[in-house]
Amino acid sequence: MDDSAATSGWSLRRRLAQVLVSTALLPVLLFSAALLWSQWKNDKDDLQMRLDSNTRLNAESLEAFLDAQLAGVQLLADRLPENAAARDEDMASLLSAYPSALRVLAVGSDGHVLAARDARWRSPSAQSSVVDTGWFKEARDKFRVQISDVYRNAAYGNETVVTLSAPMLRGAHFAGALAVDVPVESFARVMAESLLRRNLSMLLLDRSNRVIYAQGGLRWAQLDQAGAVGARLRNNAMSAEKAGRVLLLGGVLQGDGLAYVSTVRLRNGWVLALVAPRSVLLKPLVPRLLLLGVLVVVTLMGLGLALWQQRQLLHKSIGFMLNSLRGYALGGRMNPAQVDLMPDELQPLAQGIGDLGGRMNAAYAELQDVLDRREQEITERTTSLREAVANLDRISRTDALTGCLNYRGFTEAGDRLWNQAREQAQPLSVLALDIDHFKLYNDLYGHAEGDSVLRRFAGAVRSALLHSDDVLARPGGEEFTVFLPNTTHVQALHVGARVVQRVRDADIVHAGSLKGHLTVSVGVASLEPDDLELEDILKRADAALYRAKGAGRDGFCD
User: Fold this and answer.
1) Domain shared by 155 and 204, yes or no
2) Run of H or E including 492
3) Could you tell me if 448 and 389 are in contact, meaning their C-beta atoms sit under 8 angstroms apart?
């Protein structure tokens, strides 16, 4: 080749390198960025969902604990004897029944202490009157049980406590009050440690915005005022029955880091907040960045190798073509009369073009044949792809554990059957199923056994259905729903009875159930003329389910 090509205005090799980099490396970088963003977003959504569900579940658990404690205090207050010896014995029994309690205090209607009993055998407090305390005023003026805000009692050292109090009513008259001091650690520590194992920190605020409990890593200590951040958390808090809004806040962690916070307002006015540092989302990105960096390096190395090979190929090929092109053209079959009309300099090129034209025609015929075969292959692969997409769509609507429809499949099937029943004036019935004491089953046997029971339960329910077009769905947890198209209410009641019996026949041992085996409660509802939407039937089915549970479970109700 002539060396003058090296001094031309542009280089074919340089242009090829630019094209390869722009078409290969740039998509890799864009894909890497999109993948990182997608994974980060998925991790964020998952974290927010875990925060919300854990906050509501732990709020319900905490409320259940406090309600149980209050029930014991109220029961003893209602029947506390006036005789000192009997009263002392009953107070000791209360401390024995509730090991978390520190002290029980009985006061008269004037606020003076009648008796005190300490769980740790300390000398009773010298306090003689509680007339100025908030819990006594609440019991005296409103006849209400109450959980106080957090405080530190000198009698217990540095231990923070809350007071559970109940009025002692004799007839319609206020005869005094009964109060029990419960340490915060007794109901907060185990819950907080469990959450910490899931990378979540717990913060509990009382009605006055003071810190009842704050886990390590948070900026507050017990009895601190939570300030403006606490006020914002309180304003964002909703009841445990409603899904809350997860906030991204500063000023929650020690230092300047941001954190995701989910809050729930308890019935007694306290606020439970779970905190997850935003840094937990950034940690998984480091290995992903390293992996993508390796991918970019490998891509660059591959491009470099491809460019080097291409340069060698071009160098040899161009020299060969320049030497061989005239030889290929000599075999052309162009019209000699036309060639004679051309300038002498173009005649060899014309002959070569004629030869190439003939060969291109032959090659085109062969190419067309190849394209026809490829088109057939593409058609077959497209059909296979459509089948695969349809299969994936089916999987996306199916609960992987039980084989039932998941929540998405549940909503789509419900809408479809509702529209079908309305358009064709057909009956439609719904069964709302709930496995009795399933949470207790999980606690007793573990989640692995619980998953196995869910599969067996789903099989038992399927065996009770009468029609092939009946639909079994698992919207979530231990709750199942059965759609019975073209089924009257009487027929649906029969199916509900079959479901209850088939679950009994499955004979799944459940030590936590009064029956000794797993049972199910079933609510039955059917389409009525004044129903406006599917939700109307579902609400009636849920109401019937709760009536079945209220009637003792292991049965059905409409």
Assistant:
1) no
2) helix 489-506
3) no
Q: Tokens in use for 64? A: 């259940």
- Residues 6 or more apart whose Cβ sits within 8 Å of residue 193: none
Please give the distance of CA 312 from its chain centroid, rounded to a whole number.
Answer: 56
- Dihedral of alpha carbons 118, 120, 123, 127, sign: negative
Burial 453-474 (b: 16+ CB within 10 A, else e): bbebbbebbbebbeeeebbbbb
Contact 429, 476 (CB under 8 A): no
Residues 424, 371: contact at Cβ < 8 Å?
Answer: no
Per-residue confidence (pLDDT) for residue 5, from 0 to 100: 43
Q: Which helix (H) or strand (E) holds 43?
A: helix 26-79
Q: Are residues 375 and 464 in the same domain?
A: no
Question: Span 79-84, mean pLDDT?
Answer: 80
- DSSP 8-state symbol, 107: E
Q: Are residues 234 and 270 in the same domain?
A: yes
Distances (CA, A) of 540 to 529, 547, 557, 558: 14, 10, 11, 8
Which H helix or E strand runs over 531? Answer: none
CA atoms of 263 and 394, how far apart (whole Å): 36
HSE, side-chain direction, 13 A CA sphere, residue 60: 8
Could you report the per-residue pLDDT of 135-187, keeping only the tens digit for each?
888 888 888 888 989 988 777 778 899 999 999 888 778 888 988 888 888 88
**What is the C-alpha separation between 73 and 94, in angstroms, rounded?**
8
Chain position carrying tokens 């069964």 = 431
Region 426-441 average pLDDT: 94
Prediction pTM value: 0.50
**Do both 387 and 415 map to the same domain?**
no
Question: Would you say 478 and 401 are in contact if contact means Cβ atoms under 8 Å apart?
Answer: no
Question: Within a domain: residue 223?
Answer: yes
Sign of the CA dihedral running 342, 348, 350, 351: positive
Residue 200, both tokens: 């979540």
Has residue 112 been placed in a domain? yes
Q: What domain range is 371 assigned to?
A: 336-393
Euclidean distance between CA atoms 188 and 203, whole angstroms: 9
Q: Are 122 and 159 in contact (CB under 8 A)?
A: no
- Cβ-contact 72, 165 below 8 angstroms: no
**In 143-242, which ranges are continuous DSSP H helix?**
184-196, 227-236
| Residue 432 CB neighbour total at 10 angstroms | 27
Q: Which of the listed residues 135, 165, 185 is the one where a domain comes to its end?
A: 185
Q: How many domains does the chain have?
A: 4
- What distance lies between CA 355 and its chain's CA centroid? 69
